[in-house]
Amino acid sequence: MQLLWKYPLADEGYVTQRAWESAILDSCPFHPEGGCGLEKLGTYPRVEPEGMRVARWWCPKKRASISLLPSFLAARLSGTLAAVEDVVALVEAKGVAAAVDEVHPPDADDFVGLACALKSIRRRVSAVRAALLAIATLLPDRFAGVRPTLAAFREALGVPRVLALLREIAERHLGALPVPLGFGTRAAA
Ligand SMILES: [Zn+2]
Q: Ligand 1 centre and the CA of 34: distance in Å?
């Protein structure tokens, strides 16, 4: 399972300070009373941002691993929430074709191919839309009637970037909320 780590610094600080080395899990989420033999299992790497690692523990009683995802990092999609938000906002503003040109320019050394680039961007768009829809449903007092777009949520909250903030606002629902915000159901592809 994944738990959220409210890490105070942005991604550069997390990587340069190798924050995963000092990560502490106070108690096992399955056995808060202790005594299950919870042990640190080391870390695993994330492709993006470069150098990123996530700290992981193992509960032998539940036979499950527990990883501590820093709050700025997207769940199950590569990269940070801010990077995911930028791509999806670009699609909302200019359309998918323009976003492909900007995010995966065909003359880049690491160009993945048009089909791959389209797939990657559409995956982000549909995941974010599903997460926004879920938030509007889970928190009707705040977001009833808000369309599941970044533009609509930015307007509703009055801030230029919303994904990291929404993760905080919906924190108690993270287990049910779809990725990349929550750790719940896989978003429809
Ligand atoms: Zn345990």
A: 7
Q: What is the pLDDT along the chain (189 residues), one digit of tens a residue?
A: 888 888 777 777 888 899 999 899 989 999 999 999 999 999 999 888 889 999 999 999 999 999 999 999 999 888 899 999 999 999 999 999 999 999 888 888 878 888 999 999 999 999 999 999 999 999 999 999 999 999 999 999 999 999 999 999 999 999 889 999 998 754 443
**Predicted TM-score of the model (pTM):** 0.86
Contact partners, residue 70, CB within 8 Å, separation at least 6: 5, 7, 11, 14, 19, 54
167 within a domain of the structure (yes/no): yes
Cα(172) to ligand 1 centroid in Å equals 21
Q: What is the 3 CA–ligand 1 centroid distance (Å)? A: 14
- Boundaries of domain holding 104: 81-173
Domain assignment of residue 110, yes or no: yes
Q: Tell me the CA–centroid distance for residue 20 and ligand 1, in Å.
A: 20
The alpha-carbon radius of gyration of the chain (Å, integer) is 18
188 is a domain residue: no
Output the CA 26–ligand 1 centroid distance in Å. 11
